[in-house]
Amino acid sequence: MAPRGLAHRAHRIRIALEGTRPQVWRRVEVPAVTRLGDLHTLIQAVMGWEDAHLHSFEFSGRRYSENEGLGLGPPDHDEHGTRIGDVLRRRNATGTYTYDFGDDWSHTLTVEEIFDAEPGAVYPRLSDGHGCPPPEGCGGVAGFEHLRRLRDHPEEITGGYFGGAEEERSWVKLLGPDNLDLEEERRRLRKVFGPLPWEEKPAPPEESLTPARPVSLPPEEELARTAVETAPLRDLLRLARWFGPGRKLTGTRVPRPADVRIAVEELGLLPPASGKKAAERAERLRRLRAARDLPGFLPLWNSAVGLGLIEVGPGGARLAPDVVEGPAPTRILELWTELFDDAVNDDSLEGGTSGLGRLESDLLPPALRMLYEVPDDTEPSLEDLVSALLDHVTFVSASVPEESAQFRGYLTAALYRVLYRLAGTGGVHLVDNTPEEVSAKYRDDRFGARLLFGLDLDLDRLGADIDCSVALTPLGRYGVRQTLLGEGVPAPLSGHLAGVDAAELLDALAVTPAENHLAEITPWLAGRTASEAVREVVEVASSPTGTGAVRRAVGTAILHEVGEQALPELRVLLGSDRPEVAGLAAGVLLSSRSLSEEEHGRLLTEYGPWLAIDMVAGPLELGGDEHLSFLLTLDADEGAGRIGRLVLDSTDRLWKTGHPATLPALEALGRLHPDKKVAKAARRAAHKARNQG
């Protein structure tokens, strides 16, 4: 169920100018990778604004703009660094665009559809709309509506709101008809943006993104069974199934207080509470006048509607058909992933005291990527995770130096809190040895205020008393992988190469970190006999040119994993008249430790020079001098290294191996080998090879 990256998606967005009757609105289609700064330009164009005033966006309580705010709180996020697909992640998602903080023009942005962008199509596109744009500086919605009335009833132009009658007439002349000339509007839009195909701003190509390590995941059916029992999804499904036909909504399209009271009591939707909190909540529930008066319920309702579990229309609410029948595993995982993303991107902490909320909101993405990369069955301590994160976050309070122990304490406390929040989704497993009375202080919603005023907190020991380790659950690994895939990051599954042929396997492993090779080699070998594996690998790795040397380097590692069962077939291949085949077989046998001292010496003498050249040719083919230099440094950790020893032992024969890469390999060794004796021997052999040519 791998999602397509944002570069392949487009959003259909309805832009509505709030307070206008009949409403002024536009419907646009725009690539998901569009930055909010470009969306600002688009809104200005389709709504007829002149970009003469400040503006801002707001999504889930988080503000974005092109400036750093007014100094009255945390700075705004940079609209030029945020894509539409990052903040409007699903159908029915909404946000607000505000223009001119004097007239306060508020535009509601609603995602009507997310779809595959059409290759070659020109975006952004204006598909529909209604209502003339307001004139700049007309006094906000009230002034604009007054002008529209005067336009439709010119006999009422007598002066007053905008001064004298002549002034009013001049303002009215600025208005157009409410029925738009869409073709003219589209031509005007093209003048602003030009004929830009959506591919013009693609996401970075996959090869420029660091691939994630291959991971293993349970089958979708098993993941779905786990997901449906997680607290947030379980509560949403129970609420949706309870709210069937016959239950009415209020005028604001939320459940009536009586139904809220019954649902909460019958379904146990709110988290457990004890003592004074439980009594306060019970009294609040008894006195309930509106759904919004019960903290925790309205977000649950909005989430059920936003995820499509409950469909709200003019006739009331009804249960979505797939919820009645029981969602399929794929649909369950889609729902859980949305909830997981919401928890990761929870912006309710943005206004956190002393900048803590901003720090918490920025921590999870890098922390989750780090947890995704650790080996299976590994639970790093929170302390180790914080150490790894120190270079990935910037604290927003200048009063706490980032190199200080107190900053590390802030980081530890913030990460502990957000991981606890994420554990509630079933995506994170915490092994927490922190004393409960200490843990409760950090998890308290009032922690930020207590931190700011130093209430019962030892700031010098902040975070030092937290003792826990953390790991992603299989669901969490699934959720992080979906995020990576959505961002275009290659995120393979372990064993995903099991069914490919040898050529595809070798080429894929050539660009996969060596530590991840075994996870792919083992399932590939499981589907073949030892003899079949040897024949397939040797056949595709025997090309004398092209990527042959790279394939032989990878093929040697694969055949080494075949073990003793491969040895008889490899001994037969030593008699091949093709040096690439015989050399590959010799390389595997020499690394197998199955040879007698006499056999080892004979093979090294016969094949050592050819192997030395081939071992250099592979890295040169794959990454050039820089790649070879790095590998030579690793190889030479103990003396001259394997390649260096082969060069020194066979200098006089290196130049006449017959390998097609002999001269470039020797020249590279002469330039790059860190051992001066090896480099000198390689240069001498290269001189002889040039003279021979």
Explained architecture:
The chain is an alpha+beta fold. It has four domains: about 5-130 and about 175-200, MM3350-like (Structural Genomics Hypothetical 15.5 Kd Protein In mrcA-pckA Intergenic Region, Chain A, Roll); about 230-325; about 345-485, no CATH class; about 500-690, no CATH class. Helix content is about 50%, strand content about 10%. The protein contains 29 helices and twelve strands. It has an eight-stranded mixed beta sheet. A two-stranded antiparallel ribbon has the order 9-10. Strands 11-12 form a two-stranded antiparallel ribbon. Helix 12 crosses helix 18 (about 475-485), helix 22 (about 550-560) crosses helix 24 and helix 23 (about 565-575) runs antiparallel to helix 24. The model is unreliable at about 195-210, about 350-355 and about 395-400 (pLDDT under 50).
